[in-house]
Amino acid sequence: MKIEFTDVEKIYNLRRDVMRPGMDLSYVMYDEDNNEGSFHLAAVEDDKIVACITFFPSTNPDLPYENQYRMRALCTDENYRGRGYATQLINKGMEIAVSRGAHVVWFHARVHLVNFYRSFGCVEYGQPFPVKYSCMHINMYKVFN
Ligand SMILES: CC(C)(COP(=O)(O)OP(=O)(O)OC[C@H]1O[C@@H](n2cnc3c(N)ncnc32)[C@H](O)[C@@H]1OP(=O)(O)O)[C@@H](O)C(=O)NCCC(=O)NCCS
């Protein structure tokens, strides 16, 4: 497996199949996908993209830090789960965000993944909230020195 930068167009299908199965691709196309500073990482195995993640500059007013990035749309093809691909994508993405000046990375976590994200040093705040077409989520973030 190798991790590489990818164009967002190449991960729409994986995002849709993992996060919004059966729905139109437009449900997994985000306004921020092509913003300046946005980047997308792909885990490539068997010459195909089997996991992906997206980061983009975005300020969360709840957090008193400059240079914030949001992490979004972490997906691993169900046939390739449990191999550490999501873990590697998070670590690599955070490393790149920090190298670009990020002081914090924040995201909306599925509540059942809170312990997973805590293992990266992320912390949650506030109350869980519903996300349309998905499950309950909670705010999480990680601060970098
Ligand atoms: C969450 C997800 C990205 C993990 O992908 P993955 O490549 O299998 O992750 P990893 O192999 O790096 O797993 C690392 C850890 O995550 C944990 N984990 C993975 N999926 C989990 C789940 N659904 N519930 C609880 N823990 C989970 C595993 O326990 C694993 O821990 P271990 O190494 O101690 O066994 C994948 O299950 C997925 O695409 N889910 C659907 C989309 C989603 O929920 N995205 C995140 C939105 S916040």
For the structure shown, list the relevant keywords.
145 residues; alpha+beta; Aminopeptidase; 3 helices; 37% strand; binds coenzyme A
Question: Can you give a write-up of this model?
Answer:
With 145 residues, the chain is α+β, with helices and mostly antiparallel strands. The chain has a single domain, classed as Gcn5-related N-acetyltransferase (GNAT) (Aminopeptidase, 3-Layer(aba) Sandwich). The chain contains three helices and seven strands, in the order βαβββαβαββ. The chain has helices at 12-19, 85-99, 114-118, and strands at 2-5, 39-45, 48-57, 68-76, 104-110, 123-130, 136-143. It has a seven-stranded mixed β-sheet with strand order 1-2-3-4-5-7-6, with helices on both faces. α2 (85-99) links the parallel β4 (68-76) and β5. The longest helix has 15 residues, at 85-99. The model has no long low-confidence stretch (mean pLDDT 97). The structure holds coenzyme A. Coenzyme A is lined by residues 18-19, 51, 74-76, 81-87, 109-110, 112-113, 116.
Architecture blueprint of SSEs:
Elements: E1 2-5, H1 12-19, E2 39-45, E3 48-57, E4 68-76, H2 85-99, E5 104-110, H3 114-118, E6 123-130, E7 136-143
Parallel strand pairs: 4-5
Antiparallel strand pairs: 1-2, 2-3, 3-4, 5-7, 6-7
Bound molecules: coenzyme A.
Coenzyme A binds at residues 18-19, 51, 74-76, 81-87, 109-110, 112-113, 116.
